[in-house]
Write a structure and sequence with these properties.
There is one protein chain. The chain is of the alpha+beta class and about 350 residues long. Helix content is about 30%, strand content about 20%. It contains ten helices and 13 strands. The strands form three sheets. Strands 8-10-7-11-9-12-13 form a seven-stranded mixed beta sheet, sandwiched between helices. Strands 3-6-4-5 form a four-stranded mixed beta sheet, covered by helices on one side. It starts with about 20 loop residues before the first helix and ends in an 11-residue tail after the last strand.
C-alpha cells in the first residue's frame, strides 16, 4: 500500500496564516484538494455524493435504505502534538490522513463501506495556510490510498478557536447486507485479528522519547509512521461480514480494553492465545530494544493501528488478512465477562480519553 513516509517534508508557503485570509479565500484553496476521482468498477464502487461542497448541506444517496454513521475528533495536545519530544513535527498531512483512517475504520468495523465524509476544522488564527492545505491533501490521500473506493468529502465547516481540532463524521452503506455487531460472539467461536496492534503505541513511545527522529532506523520510523498515519485494513471488514463473522469491532483503544467491550456486549469471555500475542510483539522489537521497554503492553494496550477484532463460528475459514488469536468461552458461574490470556484475566488498561 503506497504511503508517503512521515519523515518526508512537504513544501510550505511561508508567512501566510489563516488570519490573513477570509473564509471564502481559504475554502478556495481547500476545495480543489478535496476532489477525489470517481472510481471505476461498477455501481458498488461509484460515489454516493449527489451534491457536494458549496451549499448549506450536502446530499448523499442511500440506496440501501440504511445509513451507517460515525464521528470522531482529534484535538491538539490531547490526540496529537504539533511538536514531539523526539523533534518530529506533526504535519497537516498527518492529521488529515489520521482523521480519514480512524473514521473509515469505524465503518469498516460494521462490515460496511464508507461513502462520504464531512469535516469540521477549528484553528487558531496563527495556523499557517500551508498546514491547512496539507491537511486537505492528507485527508484525500488517506481515503484514496487506504482503499475507500467511492468515498468522497461532501463538505464541512471552518472555525476559529484557541485549539487546533478536527472532527470528521463519516457515512457508510451496508450494500444490502447485515451489519456485524460487537454483541454476536458465541462460545466456540474463533477470535481473530486483521491488521496490526501495538505498532502505533510503539511509534508513540518513540515520538515521546528523547531519541532524535534523525537517529531512528527505517524499522523504527515505520512504527512512528503507524502512529501518525495508521493503515486500517479496510478490505477486511466487508470480507469478514461475507465470511460470516459473528462479532467485530475496531481496535481503537487497545486489544484488551476493546476486547472487554466485545466480551461484555456478547456476555462471553475472549480467551487469547499467549503464543499468538508473542508473535504480534515481534515487529515491535526495533522500538522496545531501543527504549528498553517490554513490547507486550503495546500489543495489549495500544489501539491506534485501527486493526479489526472479529469472531467467527467454529469451522469457518478465516478470510484473507485475518489471523486466529484465541477463542470465545462461556463465563464460569463465579466470573464476569472479559478478556483472558491463556486462561488468566488480562489486566492491560488501554486508552481512556478522560483518564489519559
Amino acid at each position: 500500500m503506497p504511503v508517503t513516509s512521515v519523515s518526508e517534508t512537504r513544501p510550505a508557503e511561508p508567512g501566510l496564516t489563516v488570519a490573513g485570509l477570509s473564509e471564502s479565500q481559504l475554502l478556495e484553496r481547500i476545495f480543489p484538494r478535496l476532489i477525489i476521482p470517481e472510481p471505476a468498477g461498477g455501481p458498488e464502487a461509484g460515489t454516493s455524493l449527489l451534491l457536494g461542497p458549496g451549499d448549506d448541506a450536502a446530499i448523499v444517496a442511500a440506496p440501501d435504505g440504511r445509513t451507517v454513521l460515525s464521528i470522531d475528533t482529534q484535538v491538539a495536545d490531547q490526540d496529537f502534538r504539533l511538536q514531539w519530544n523526539n523533534g518530529y513535527r506533526t504535519s497537516g498531512y498527518d492529521v488529515g490522513w489520521k482523521a480519514a483512517a480512524q473514521n473509515l475504520s469505524d465503518i469498516n468495523a460494521m462490515g460496511a463501506r464508507s461513502t462520504s465524509l464531512v469535516v469540521s476544522l477549528t484553528m487558531p488564527p496563527e495556523t499557517p495556510v500551508s498546514w491547512v492545505e496539507d491537511f486537505a491533501d492528507g485527508l484525500t490521500a488517506g481515503i484514496r490510498e487506504l482503499g475507500a473506493r467511492g468515498c468522497t468529502v461532501a463538505g464541512g465547516d471552518l472555525g476559529r478557536g484557541r485549539e487546533l481540532a478536527v472532527s470528521v463524521a463519516v457515512v457508510g452503506t451496508l450494500d444490502g447486507k447485515e451489519p456485524v455487531l460487537r454483541s454476536g460472539a458465541r462460545p466456540g467461536d474463533t477470535v481473530a485479528l486483521a491488521g496490526t496492534v501495538g505498532r502505533a503505541a510503539a511509534g508513540l513511545a518513540l515520538l515521546e522519547s528523547e531519541i532524535s527522529v534523525a537517529e531512528l532506523t527505517a524499522a523504527q520510523r515505520a512504527l512512528m509512521d503507524t502512529q501518525c498515519r495508521p493503515l486500517p485494513p479496510l478490505a477486511a471488514g466487508p470480507a469478514a461480514r461475507d465470511a460470516g463473522a459473528s462479532a467485530m469491532m475496531d481496535i481503537s483503544d487497545g486489544l484488551v480494553r476493546d476486547g472487554n467491550r466485545m466480551a461484555a456486549a456478547s456476555h462471553a469471555v475472549l480467551n487469547l492465545d499467549a503464543a499468538a500475542l508473542k508473535e504480534l510483539a515481534v515487529p515491535l522489537l526495533p522500538a522496545s530494544e531501543l527504549l528498553g521497554a517490554d513490547p507486550m503492553p503495546w500489543v495489549l494496550g495500544g489501539g491506534e493501528d485501527h486493526g479489526l477484532l472479529a469472531t467467527f463460528p467454529a469451522g469457518v475459514q478465516l478470510p484473507a488478512g485475518f489471523t486466529a488469536i484465541g477463542s470465545v468461552e462461556t463465563p464460569a458461574p463465579t466470573e464476569s465477562t472479559g478478556v483472558k490470556i491463556a486462561g488468566r484475566p488480562a489486566d492491560a488498561v488501554g486508552w481512556d480519553h478522560f483518564a489519559n
